[in-house]
């Protein structure tokens, strides 16, 4: 990414220039006061900004523990029939192992968002990693057919960790990254979550075969749980030792302005009320919930869809889920890079939403053709656009709600997604039981079409871009005025 490397170099050169200017001012006899005056002379139009290399470490560490958490969201559902047999429960109980992630989020998001605004990124990251680690070890102790309630408790604990995770990508992007790379950074943050879901589709069917020997089945399940717990523990240690709150110098003018706001001036309740009176953002809340809710339903029901038409293909059901998410990861990264270069938030969001609807339609009518390679192909098309929509919604929300907290806007989007995810998962499951998979998928297609239409009515009000452009314009004006003053002095000297 040449543009990003250039940004790092520019930031470092800028700091070197400032340090050199400080040394020259002090050498001139003015001491620190003169150095401060010299620095102030260059920053009347803009605050000092800098990009740090460690920003990539922060976002990658976040992506890693987000991956570990999202892996567990789907690890039960993708081998639904195997866990039903092991714990002696029905399919609806196993569906709730996925839906608990959605249900927990709804009441918890508001206190967690308040905590993010008041205490910052590091505290929230520590709590997320700690809860995720705790949940994995609870599951390790649940590998007995009579301990379904224990494994459910472990999943509930991991679902609490997810509440601390989902609102962070856009916040990390704004706090650590330059204005030309925030969308890419947000995409990387979402990328980890998607990769975890992809691994969750792929690994459980490989580690836990569909066998009748309960002792052997318990052994394979315990292997999966121990591996997850080991990774979660390692990541928790890394978060404790490596994760930082924010860079010493803000990366953008918009972030510098946000830092200048006194905590006493900020009201969390007032912020939510302002967001809910922002009509374009309210429309985005609805459309984001419809799209991501459909994705949650497809992920939860995928095992049942595939097994109905291709009996005994649990492993391929996982691979199809993997295909959906891997394609979506490419979609997310490409859309993030595209947004950083073009800033066409409304147009890109609408195009991706429309193609999500088309992809779901194609997937619906090719699922029962009897050719698995066709299902893989159509699943890739669906995933590229539907999963690729996730970071688009986050970044579009941050743009139209600046200078409100990124965590608050992201939290409202995710809350909508969880509500629709629960409704769609339960409804689609009942429709599949009564009318088959095609009817269940058509149910989702209808809501994707509605979401596409509503997206067309969202006004593109890019407030964060406007804030950065205003500062840049002021800087340019001061630069021109400074050159004009210098030219006047030179002319007088010549005379």
Automatic annotation (TrEMBL):
Pfam families: MFS_1 (PF07690). Residues 1-33 are annotated as: Disordered. It is a multi-pass membrane protein. It comes from the Eukaryota. One of its GO terms (biological process) is heme export. Its main location: membrane. It is found in: Cell membrane; Endoplasmic reticulum membrane; Mitochondrion membrane. Keywords: Cell membrane, Endoplasmic reticulum, Membrane, Mitochondrion, Transmembrane, Transmembrane helix, Transport. The chain crosses the membrane at residues 56-76, 96-116, 123-141, 147-170, 182-203, 223-243, 281-299, 319-338, 350-367, 373-398, 410-427, 439-458. It catalyses: ethanolamine(in) = ethanolamine(out); heme b(in) = heme b(out); choline(out) = choline(in). InterPro entries: FLVCR1-2_SLC49-like, MFS, MFS_dom, MFS_trans_sf. Residues 56-463 form the Major facilitator superfamily (MFS) profile domain. Belongs to the major facilitator superfamily. Feline leukemia virus subgroup C receptor (TC 2.A.1.28.1) family. Choline uniporter that specifically mediates choline uptake at the blood-brain-barrier. Responsible for the majority of choline uptake across the blood-brain-barrier from the circulation into the brain. Choline, a nutrient critical for brain development, is a precursor of phosphatidylcholine, as well as betaine. Also mediates transport of ethanolamine. Choline and ethanolamine transport is not coupled with proton transport and is exclusively driven by the choline gradient across the plasma membrane. Also acts as a heme b transporter. This is FLVCR choline and putative heme transporter 2.
């Amino acid at each position: 990414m040449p543009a990003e490397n250039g940004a790092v170099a520019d930031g470092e050169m800028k700091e070197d220039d400032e340090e050199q200017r400080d040394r020259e001012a002090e050498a001139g006899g003015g001491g620190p006061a003169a150095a401060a005056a010299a620095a102030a002379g260059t920053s009347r139009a803009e605050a000092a900004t800098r990009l740090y290399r460690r920003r990539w470490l922060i976002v990658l560490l976040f992506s890693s523990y987000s991956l570990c958490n999202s892996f567990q969201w789907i690890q039960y559902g993708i081998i639904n029939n195997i866990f039903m047999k092991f714990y002696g429960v029905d399919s609806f109980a196993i569906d709730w192992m996925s839906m608990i992630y959605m249900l927990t989020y709804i009441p918890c998001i508001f206190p967690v968002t308040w905590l993010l605004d008041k205490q910052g990124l590091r505290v929230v990251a520590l709590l997320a990693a700690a809860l995720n680690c705790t949940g994995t070890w609870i599951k390790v102790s649940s590998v007995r057919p009579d301990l379904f309630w224990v494994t459910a408790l472990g999943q509930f604990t991991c679902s609490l960790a997810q509440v601390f995770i989902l609102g962070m990508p856009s916040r990390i992007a704004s706090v650590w990254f330059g204005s030309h790379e925030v969308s890419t950074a947000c995409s990387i943050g979402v990328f980890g979550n998607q990769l975890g879901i992809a691994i969750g589709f792929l690994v459980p069917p490989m580690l836990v075969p569909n066998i009748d020997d309960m002792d052997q089945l318990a052994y394979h399940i315990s292997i999966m749980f121990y591996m997850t717990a080991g990774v979660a523990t390692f990541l928790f240690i890394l978060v404790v030792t490596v994760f930082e709150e924010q860079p010493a110098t803000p990366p953008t003018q918009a972030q510098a302005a946000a830092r200048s706001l006194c905590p006493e001036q900020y009201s969390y309740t007032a912020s939510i009320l302002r967001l809910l009176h922002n009509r374009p953002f309210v429309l985005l809340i609805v459309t984001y919930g419809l799209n991501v809710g459909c994705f949650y339903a497809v992920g939860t029901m995928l095992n049942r869809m595939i097994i109905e038409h291709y009996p005994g293909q649990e492993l391929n059901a996982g691979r199809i889920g993997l295909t959906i998410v891997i394609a979506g990861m490419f979609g997310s990264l490409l859309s993030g890079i595209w947004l950083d270069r073009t800033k066409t938030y409304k147009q890109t969001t609408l195009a991706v939403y429309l193609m999500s609807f088309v992809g779901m339609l194609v997937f619906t009518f090719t699922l029962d053709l009897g050719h698995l390679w066709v299902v893989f192909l159509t699943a890739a098309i669906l995933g590229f656009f539907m999963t690729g929509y996730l970071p688009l919604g986050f970044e579009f929300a941050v743009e139209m709600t600046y200078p409100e907290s990124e965590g608050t806007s992201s939290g409202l989007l995710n809350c909508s997604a969880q509500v629709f995810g629960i409704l769609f998962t339960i409804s689609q499951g009942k429709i599949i039981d009564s009318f088959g998979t095609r009817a269940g998928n058509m149910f989702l297609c209808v809501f994707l079409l509605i979401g596409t239409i509503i997206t067309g009515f969202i006004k593109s009000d890019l407030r964060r871009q406007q804030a950065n452009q205003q500062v840049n314009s002021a800087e340019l004006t001061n630069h021109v005025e400074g050159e004009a003053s210098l030219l006047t002095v030179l002319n007088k000297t010549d005379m």
